[in-house]
Model the fold of this input.
Amino acid sequence: MAITRNGCEGCTEITCTSSKQVLSQEVSKGINTAYDRVKSRGMSACLFGSGGTCCRNCNMGPCQIIDGVEDMIGICGATADTVAARNFARVIAAGSAAHTDHAREMVKGFIETAKGNSPHQIKDVDKLKKLAEVFGIVTEDREVNDIALELGEKALAEFGSQDDEPLSMLKRATPKRQAIWKKLGIAPRGIDREVVEMMHRTHMGVDQDYKNIMLQASRCALGDGWGSSMLSTELTDIMFGTPVPRRSMVDLGVLKADQVNITVHGHEPLLAEALCIAAEAPEMIELAKKQGAKGINLVGVCCTGNEILMRRGIPVAAGFVQQEITLATGAIEAMVVDVQCIMQSVVDVAKSFHTDIITTNYRAKMDGAVHIQFEEHAALESAKEILTRAIKNYKKRGKFFIPEDSKLDVVVGFSHETINYMLGGRFRASYRPLNDNIINGRIRGVAAIVGCDNFQLSDESHEIIARELIKNNVLVLATGCAATALGRAGLVNPEAAKYCGESLAEVCETVGMPPVLHMGSCVDNSRILIAATEMVRQGGLGDDISDLPAIGTAPLWMSEKAVAIGQYFVASGAQVVFQDLPTTGANKFNKYLLEGLMGPMGAHWNVAKDPKEIARIMIEKIDAKRDALGINKKTERVLFDMDMRRDLGSEGLKDVGCHGPAKV
Done:
């Protein structure tokens, strides 16, 4: 079959080798994917919608606003700036709500684990006690599960809190950033409360000042980043184990011809962890063998895939844009889904094969799918019921194609704790070596590449940006589908140091780490906030995140969650770069996002279309921070003999930046 899914104006070309291989096979003939739908739309995007100036918040419209034209304001008088700000804020509220609902389930699962009502256990006791201290919980001479239960209950209470006290986790931010939030009145209170207030304030006839709307949008986003997402990441680590570096593989070649292939797709790791445990049960393995398979091959898709990749080393078959193509291999017995980023079209693709789409969450059902509700109080029983359905499909498998040569080695598991220990050692865990190497110029700065992938933009963008950054000695942190894409590009392993600039390569080779550090799923962007804050605390790089030579990008953002992430980074003092924002139809508001937020927040949004231009902006912003810190000059390396060391003395060593034994 000829591939016609590329080269169309206004949509991306399929550049992924494994995807092209699958779509060129007879087995996938007639399969309609999102690439086809983008090509066949036959229309350009609505200028009012893409510019953010279409308002349908009441039934007098919809109103299509043209900025600066007197007669083209809303029927209620709303201007382009008000409408665009409301729409942008509602995107942030929706993205925050998605992360919040995810996190709530993780907290409830954590409480059940503390009560002994789940197949899981508290694995990271040290992290449990550290987080308990943040919530003011006494840990000395107490049972682990008692501490965990109190922590879980206090965490759950913060979702619905009606007090005006800020969230407990905000205490982890730098003192300067906490003071900024207090001055602006944007320290989040109850996590759910901020989403509700955001929706209320953007209702017709309420908040009509775009700057004031963005204050609440920032508070809502911070409730996500420093509240729900951070809680989800931390409690998941405590319950399932904090990730440590491990080797695994990504891409469609991780499917196996002689095993039952089950993909886990979505975002809440409670289901995925239960499936991992159940898949190892002797009766499940025996059932698979009775069906003629050699075993059960559980693989990930999207962010659930990143969760089990980080903690268990289970391969990730695909990111968001590959979910239909994964099914088009004909080799999948079941795609098990929970919430978020599941395309409704997977049901139609699955109909061409023996594959079941199994929904598991009452929030997220699809016509044509099989629904098996995942019950947290009976997690293993639910998981085994799902696996049994999938295993019995194996005998029904017809023609299939697995691109076996398309699997890439990755090294993942770079939590905040891992970076700490990796650089400073188990007994002297510290970010000091990272800060020192930034100060001395071996590492130019730190860049985060996060978020989704998108059918309408080049799926090579993540790779292009990352290669430009590491070539210029910028260390890259990655999460979500961006991390999976960079894994497929061969950049998430230590061998990728050969693509780095000389000094970053030296650091990576010495430590044995990749130049692109896989830090987890999209909720795990909170790890980056913690890491950035720790860099500030180590000293030498300013007194707030806004001083760091660091910046983030979500170049192929698709989900509303990505905008919420962008805003909580900006409100935390970190600049971000996106390829587009739905705000261009409102001149004042758009300028406020791209420039004006620097005043109150110490950071702002940036926009650029071309991936190389995004990389250039990121490097430019990093260099500007280095200039401000007075460290943007190459330090000449001097080898001291013993006489020179004696002459310098201890005070002299401090003056030239020596902090004890040499380390990287």
